[in-house]
Amino acid sequence: MFDIFKLVFTDENFLKAFSQTIIIIFIGFFFMRKGIVDVSAKKTLTALIWKLAVPCFAFNAFMQDFEWNSFRFSITEFVLAIVFYIILISVGKLIFLKKGKDFSSVAGLMMAIGQTTLFSMPILQSVYENKAKEVLLYISTISIVFRIFVYIIGVTIISGEKITREKFFPQLKKVFVTPVMIGMLLGIFVFLTQNTFPVLRIDRTFPVLYSTVKVISSLVSPLCMLLIGMSIGEAKIIECIKDKNAWCLAVLRNIFAPILISVLCLLLHKTGIIHFTEYSLVAIVVGFSAPISVTLSIVCMQYKKEEVMASRACVISTILTLITFPLSFVLVHFILKCF
Protein backbone atom coordinates (compact mmCIF):
# COMPACT_ATOMS: atom_id res chain seq x y z
CA MET A 1 0.00 0.00 0.00
CA PHE A 2 2.90 2.34 0.80
CA ASP A 3 4.20 1.79 -2.75
CA ILE A 4 0.84 2.94 -4.15
CA PHE A 5 0.86 6.13 -2.05
CA LYS A 6 4.43 6.76 -3.13
CA LEU A 7 3.52 6.19 -6.78
CA VAL A 8 0.61 8.67 -6.64
CA PHE A 9 2.21 11.36 -4.50
CA THR A 10 5.48 11.37 -6.42
CA ASP A 11 3.81 11.61 -9.82
CA GLU A 12 4.78 15.02 -11.19
CA ASN A 13 1.59 15.52 -13.24
CA PHE A 14 -0.61 14.60 -10.27
CA LEU A 15 1.28 16.89 -7.88
CA LYS A 16 1.08 19.79 -10.33
CA ALA A 17 -2.64 19.25 -10.96
CA PHE A 18 -3.47 18.90 -7.26
CA SER A 19 -1.38 21.88 -6.11
CA GLN A 20 -2.80 24.06 -8.88
CA THR A 21 -6.32 23.03 -7.85
CA ILE A 22 -5.78 24.02 -4.21
CA ILE A 23 -4.04 27.30 -5.03
CA ILE A 24 -6.58 28.48 -7.61
CA ILE A 25 -9.55 27.50 -5.41
CA PHE A 26 -7.98 29.49 -2.57
CA ILE A 27 -7.50 32.50 -4.88
CA GLY A 28 -11.19 32.36 -5.83
CA PHE A 29 -12.14 32.05 -2.16
CA PHE A 30 -9.85 34.94 -1.15
CA PHE A 31 -11.07 37.22 -3.93
CA MET A 32 -14.72 36.65 -2.97
CA ARG A 33 -14.12 37.03 0.78
CA LYS A 34 -12.17 40.27 0.33
CA GLY A 35 -14.67 41.74 -2.11
CA ILE A 36 -12.16 41.87 -4.96
CA VAL A 37 -14.86 40.15 -7.04
CA ASP A 38 -18.60 40.08 -6.44
CA VAL A 39 -21.66 38.04 -7.41
CA SER A 40 -21.86 39.69 -10.84
CA ALA A 41 -18.26 38.62 -11.55
CA LYS A 42 -19.18 35.08 -10.53
CA LYS A 43 -22.13 35.11 -12.96
CA THR A 44 -19.86 36.32 -15.77
CA LEU A 45 -17.30 33.63 -14.99
CA THR A 46 -20.03 30.97 -14.91
CA ALA A 47 -21.25 32.08 -18.35
CA LEU A 48 -17.72 31.95 -19.79
CA ILE A 49 -17.21 28.45 -18.42
CA TRP A 50 -20.50 26.92 -19.54
CA LYS A 51 -20.91 28.74 -22.86
CA LEU A 52 -17.34 28.86 -24.10
CA ALA A 53 -14.60 26.97 -22.23
CA VAL A 54 -16.39 23.68 -21.44
CA PRO A 55 -18.00 23.36 -24.92
CA CYS A 56 -14.53 23.72 -26.50
CA PHE A 57 -13.12 21.23 -23.99
CA ALA A 58 -15.94 18.76 -24.69
CA PHE A 59 -15.38 19.04 -28.46
CA ASN A 60 -11.59 18.76 -28.14
CA ALA A 61 -11.88 15.53 -26.11
CA PHE A 62 -13.04 13.71 -29.27
CA MET A 63 -10.23 14.95 -31.53
CA GLN A 64 -8.50 11.58 -31.64
CA ASP A 65 -8.28 8.62 -33.99
CA PHE A 66 -11.30 6.36 -34.02
CA GLU A 67 -10.71 2.96 -32.46
CA TRP A 68 -13.43 0.34 -32.04
CA ASN A 69 -12.12 -0.73 -28.64
CA SER A 70 -12.23 2.82 -27.25
CA PHE A 71 -15.66 3.46 -28.76
CA ARG A 72 -17.03 0.16 -27.49
CA PHE A 73 -15.76 0.81 -23.99
CA SER A 74 -17.11 4.38 -24.00
CA ILE A 75 -20.55 2.83 -24.53
CA THR A 76 -19.82 0.44 -21.65
CA GLU A 77 -18.86 3.44 -19.46
CA PHE A 78 -22.13 5.14 -20.42
CA VAL A 79 -24.19 2.13 -19.29
CA LEU A 80 -22.06 1.64 -16.17
CA ALA A 81 -22.50 5.25 -15.16
CA ILE A 82 -26.29 4.88 -15.40
CA VAL A 83 -26.21 1.73 -13.26
CA PHE A 84 -23.88 3.29 -10.67
CA TYR A 85 -26.01 6.43 -10.41
CA ILE A 86 -29.10 4.30 -9.78
CA ILE A 87 -27.28 2.22 -7.15
CA LEU A 88 -25.97 5.28 -5.28
CA ILE A 89 -29.33 7.07 -5.38
CA SER A 90 -31.04 3.96 -4.00
CA VAL A 91 -28.45 3.42 -1.26
CA GLY A 92 -28.53 7.09 -0.25
CA LYS A 93 -32.30 7.05 -0.09
CA LEU A 94 -32.28 3.94 2.13
CA ILE A 95 -29.70 5.45 4.50
CA PHE A 96 -31.85 8.55 5.11
CA LEU A 97 -35.25 6.87 4.83
CA LYS A 98 -36.19 7.66 8.46
CA LYS A 99 -35.74 11.40 7.83
CA GLY A 100 -38.72 11.57 5.50
CA LYS A 101 -39.45 11.21 1.81
CA ASP A 102 -38.24 14.65 0.69
CA PHE A 103 -35.00 14.51 2.66
CA SER A 104 -34.13 10.94 1.63
CA SER A 105 -34.88 11.65 -2.03
CA VAL A 106 -32.65 14.74 -2.12
CA ALA A 107 -29.95 12.99 -0.06
CA GLY A 108 -29.91 10.04 -2.48
CA LEU A 109 -29.40 12.36 -5.43
CA MET A 110 -26.66 14.34 -3.69
CA MET A 111 -24.82 11.20 -2.67
CA ALA A 112 -24.85 10.01 -6.29
CA ILE A 113 -24.32 13.13 -8.39
CA GLY A 114 -21.07 15.08 -8.22
CA GLN A 115 -19.52 17.93 -10.18
CA THR A 116 -18.22 15.74 -12.98
CA THR A 117 -17.97 18.51 -15.58
CA LEU A 118 -16.55 21.26 -13.37
CA PHE A 119 -14.24 19.15 -11.20
CA SER A 120 -13.37 15.67 -12.46
CA MET A 121 -12.93 16.58 -16.13
CA PRO A 122 -10.47 19.48 -15.69
CA ILE A 123 -8.39 17.62 -13.09
CA LEU A 124 -8.11 14.53 -15.30
CA GLN A 125 -7.12 16.81 -18.16
CA SER A 126 -4.29 18.18 -16.02
CA VAL A 127 -3.14 14.85 -14.60
CA TYR A 128 -3.12 13.12 -18.01
CA GLU A 129 -1.89 16.13 -19.96
CA ASN A 130 -0.47 15.05 -23.34
CA LYS A 131 -0.56 11.42 -22.19
CA ALA A 132 -3.95 10.02 -23.06
CA LYS A 133 -6.96 11.59 -24.73
CA GLU A 134 -8.65 8.26 -24.13
CA VAL A 135 -9.41 9.17 -20.50
CA LEU A 136 -11.08 12.39 -21.68
CA LEU A 137 -13.22 10.36 -24.08
CA TYR A 138 -14.45 8.22 -21.19
CA ILE A 139 -15.05 11.05 -18.72
CA SER A 140 -16.90 13.01 -21.43
CA THR A 141 -19.18 10.00 -21.95
CA ILE A 142 -19.87 9.87 -18.20
CA SER A 143 -20.57 13.61 -18.29
CA ILE A 144 -23.47 12.99 -20.69
CA VAL A 145 -25.06 10.66 -18.13
CA PHE A 146 -24.38 13.25 -15.42
CA ARG A 147 -26.40 15.86 -17.29
CA ILE A 148 -29.28 13.44 -17.89
CA PHE A 149 -29.46 12.60 -14.20
CA VAL A 150 -29.27 16.24 -13.13
CA TYR A 151 -31.73 17.80 -15.55
CA ILE A 152 -34.21 14.96 -16.02
CA ILE A 153 -34.01 12.51 -13.09
CA GLY A 154 -32.91 15.12 -10.53
CA VAL A 155 -35.47 17.74 -11.48
CA THR A 156 -38.25 15.12 -11.61
CA ILE A 157 -37.44 13.68 -8.16
CA ILE A 158 -36.90 17.06 -6.46
CA SER A 159 -39.95 18.73 -8.02
CA GLY A 160 -42.15 15.71 -7.32
CA GLU A 161 -43.81 16.16 -10.68
CA LYS A 162 -44.52 13.22 -12.95
CA ILE A 163 -42.84 13.01 -16.33
CA THR A 164 -45.42 13.74 -19.02
CA ARG A 165 -45.04 14.08 -22.75
CA GLU A 166 -45.45 17.85 -22.46
CA LYS A 167 -42.71 18.17 -19.82
CA PHE A 168 -40.34 15.47 -21.06
CA PHE A 169 -39.25 17.17 -24.27
CA PRO A 170 -38.57 20.58 -22.66
CA GLN A 171 -36.41 18.80 -20.06
CA LEU A 172 -34.69 16.84 -22.81
CA LYS A 173 -34.01 20.15 -24.53
CA LYS A 174 -32.32 21.43 -21.36
CA VAL A 175 -29.97 18.47 -21.51
CA PHE A 176 -29.03 18.42 -25.18
CA VAL A 177 -29.64 21.94 -26.53
CA THR A 178 -26.88 23.60 -24.53
CA PRO A 179 -23.44 24.84 -25.61
CA VAL A 180 -21.76 22.02 -23.63
CA MET A 181 -23.81 19.23 -25.18
CA ILE A 182 -23.68 20.76 -28.66
CA GLY A 183 -19.88 20.85 -28.41
CA MET A 184 -19.81 17.30 -27.13
CA LEU A 185 -22.23 15.96 -29.76
CA LEU A 186 -20.28 17.69 -32.54
CA GLY A 187 -17.13 16.08 -31.19
CA ILE A 188 -18.81 12.66 -31.13
CA PHE A 189 -20.00 13.15 -34.72
CA VAL A 190 -16.49 14.01 -35.89
CA PHE A 191 -15.04 11.09 -33.92
CA LEU A 192 -17.46 8.57 -35.46
CA THR A 193 -17.36 9.87 -39.06
CA GLN A 194 -13.71 10.93 -39.41
CA ASN A 195 -12.83 8.00 -41.70
CA THR A 196 -15.64 9.00 -44.07
CA PHE A 197 -15.19 12.77 -43.71
CA PRO A 198 -11.53 13.32 -42.76
CA VAL A 199 -11.90 17.06 -43.40
CA LEU A 200 -13.87 17.30 -40.13
CA ARG A 201 -10.72 16.56 -38.12
CA ILE A 202 -9.91 20.27 -37.77
CA ASP A 203 -6.83 19.47 -35.70
CA ARG A 204 -5.34 18.21 -38.98
CA THR A 205 -7.17 20.11 -41.71
CA PHE A 206 -7.58 23.53 -40.01
CA PRO A 207 -4.79 23.74 -37.42
CA VAL A 208 -5.23 27.50 -36.97
CA LEU A 209 -8.90 27.09 -36.02
CA TYR A 210 -8.09 24.06 -33.85
CA SER A 211 -5.38 25.94 -31.96
CA THR A 212 -8.02 28.46 -30.87
CA VAL A 213 -10.34 25.66 -29.66
CA LYS A 214 -7.43 24.05 -27.81
CA VAL A 215 -6.39 27.27 -26.08
CA ILE A 216 -9.95 28.01 -24.95
CA SER A 217 -10.39 24.42 -23.72
CA SER A 218 -7.22 24.80 -21.62
CA LEU A 219 -9.02 27.54 -19.65
CA VAL A 220 -11.47 25.02 -18.20
CA SER A 221 -9.29 23.93 -15.29
CA PRO A 222 -8.31 27.36 -13.88
CA LEU A 223 -11.71 28.95 -14.50
CA CYS A 224 -13.60 26.05 -12.88
CA MET A 225 -11.35 26.10 -9.81
CA LEU A 226 -11.76 29.87 -9.49
CA LEU A 227 -15.53 29.46 -9.67
CA ILE A 228 -15.51 26.73 -7.01
CA GLY A 229 -13.37 28.91 -4.74
CA MET A 230 -15.70 31.89 -5.24
CA SER A 231 -18.69 29.69 -4.38
CA ILE A 232 -17.04 28.64 -1.11
CA GLY A 233 -16.11 32.27 -0.46
CA GLU A 234 -19.70 33.47 -0.51
CA ALA A 235 -20.96 30.66 1.75
CA LYS A 236 -21.50 30.90 5.51
CA ILE A 237 -18.88 28.28 6.34
CA ILE A 238 -19.39 28.22 10.12
CA GLU A 239 -23.09 27.36 9.71
CA CYS A 240 -22.17 24.67 7.17
CA ILE A 241 -19.62 23.11 9.53
CA LYS A 242 -22.23 22.90 12.33
CA ASP A 243 -24.70 20.99 10.13
CA LYS A 244 -24.38 17.25 10.94
CA ASN A 245 -26.53 16.22 7.97
CA ALA A 246 -24.27 18.18 5.61
CA TRP A 247 -21.23 16.40 7.03
CA CYS A 248 -22.90 13.01 6.76
CA LEU A 249 -23.79 13.59 3.10
CA ALA A 250 -20.35 14.94 2.29
CA VAL A 251 -18.63 11.91 3.83
CA LEU A 252 -20.95 9.54 1.99
CA ARG A 253 -20.35 11.35 -1.29
CA ASN A 254 -16.60 11.90 -0.92
CA ILE A 255 -15.54 8.64 0.72
CA PHE A 256 -18.25 5.98 0.61
CA ALA A 257 -19.33 6.54 -3.03
CA PRO A 258 -15.86 6.23 -4.66
CA ILE A 259 -15.01 3.21 -2.48
CA LEU A 260 -18.27 1.48 -3.44
CA ILE A 261 -17.73 2.26 -7.14
CA SER A 262 -14.14 0.98 -6.89
CA VAL A 263 -15.27 -2.29 -5.29
CA LEU A 264 -17.93 -2.79 -7.96
CA CYS A 265 -15.40 -2.14 -10.73
CA LEU A 266 -12.99 -4.62 -9.15
CA LEU A 267 -15.72 -7.28 -8.96
CA LEU A 268 -16.74 -6.66 -12.58
CA HIS A 269 -13.13 -7.01 -13.71
CA LYS A 270 -12.37 -10.07 -11.59
CA THR A 271 -15.47 -11.89 -12.84
CA GLY A 272 -14.51 -11.10 -16.44
CA ILE A 273 -17.71 -9.16 -17.15
CA ILE A 274 -15.75 -5.98 -17.95
CA HIS A 275 -12.02 -5.57 -18.50
CA PHE A 276 -10.91 -2.12 -17.38
CA THR A 277 -7.81 -0.27 -18.50
CA GLU A 278 -6.19 2.41 -16.34
CA TYR A 279 -7.89 5.13 -18.38
CA SER A 280 -11.38 3.66 -18.30
CA LEU A 281 -11.05 2.89 -14.58
CA VAL A 282 -9.72 6.30 -13.55
CA ALA A 283 -12.46 8.03 -15.55
CA ILE A 284 -15.27 6.28 -13.70
CA VAL A 285 -13.70 6.28 -10.21
CA VAL A 286 -12.58 9.92 -10.38
CA GLY A 287 -15.87 10.81 -12.06
CA PHE A 288 -17.70 9.52 -8.99
CA SER A 289 -15.24 11.16 -6.57
CA ALA A 290 -16.18 14.75 -7.40
CA PRO A 291 -17.90 16.87 -4.73
CA ILE A 292 -21.70 17.17 -4.60
CA SER A 293 -23.16 18.90 -7.65
CA VAL A 294 -23.90 22.59 -7.17
CA THR A 295 -26.52 22.31 -9.92
CA LEU A 296 -28.56 19.97 -7.71
CA SER A 297 -28.41 22.53 -4.92
CA ILE A 298 -29.76 25.16 -7.30
CA VAL A 299 -32.61 22.83 -8.32
CA CYS A 300 -33.43 22.31 -4.61
CA MET A 301 -33.61 26.09 -4.15
CA GLN A 302 -35.82 26.42 -7.21
CA TYR A 303 -38.36 23.90 -5.87
CA LYS A 304 -37.80 24.73 -2.16
CA LYS A 305 -36.86 21.16 -1.23
CA GLU A 306 -34.22 20.84 1.52
CA GLU A 307 -32.41 23.82 0.00
CA VAL A 308 -30.48 24.77 3.17
CA MET A 309 -29.16 21.25 3.71
CA ALA A 310 -28.30 20.89 0.02
CA SER A 311 -26.37 24.16 -0.06
CA ARG A 312 -24.41 23.36 3.11
CA ALA A 313 -23.64 19.81 1.96
CA CYS A 314 -22.20 21.19 -1.30
CA VAL A 315 -19.86 23.51 0.59
CA ILE A 316 -18.64 20.82 3.03
CA SER A 317 -18.26 18.28 0.24
CA THR A 318 -16.20 20.71 -1.87
CA ILE A 319 -13.89 21.58 1.03
CA LEU A 320 -13.56 17.92 2.03
CA THR A 321 -12.68 17.01 -1.55
CA LEU A 322 -9.36 18.82 -1.22
CA ILE A 323 -8.40 16.06 1.22
CA THR A 324 -10.28 13.06 -0.19
CA PHE A 325 -9.83 13.60 -3.94
CA PRO A 326 -6.19 12.39 -4.04
CA LEU A 327 -7.37 9.17 -2.42
CA SER A 328 -9.44 8.40 -5.52
CA PHE A 329 -6.20 8.11 -7.49
CA VAL A 330 -4.81 5.87 -4.74
CA LEU A 331 -7.94 3.73 -5.09
CA VAL A 332 -7.43 3.46 -8.85
CA HIS A 333 -3.84 2.27 -8.49
CA PHE A 334 -4.82 -0.13 -5.70
CA ILE A 335 -7.46 -1.72 -7.93
CA LEU A 336 -5.05 -1.90 -10.86
CA LYS A 337 -2.63 -3.76 -8.60
CA CYS A 338 -5.44 -6.20 -7.66
CA PHE A 339 -6.14 -6.88 -11.33
Give an account of the 3D structure.
The protein is mainly α. The protein has 17 helices and no strands. It has helices at residues 2-9, 12-33, 39-60, 68-95, 101-112, 116-127, 133-159, 165-176, 179-193, 202-205, 207-217, 220-233, 237-242, 244-270, 278-287, 294-303, 307-338.
Strand content: under 5%
Number of helices: 17
Radius of gyration: 19 Å
What is the 3D shape? Answer: globular
Main beta-sheet strand count, sense and barrel state: none
Distance between the termini: 15 Å
Secondary structure: helix percent:
over 70%
Total beta-strand segments: 0
Provide the domain count: 1
- What is the CATH-assigned architecture? Up-down Bundle
Helix-strand sequence? HHHHHHHHHHHHHHHHH
Which fold name corresponds to the CATH topology? Answer: Na+/H+ antiporter like fold
Mean pLDDT, all residues: 89
Question: What characteristics describe this protein?
Answer:
single chain; 339 residues; mainly alpha; Na+/H+ antiporter like fold; 17 helices
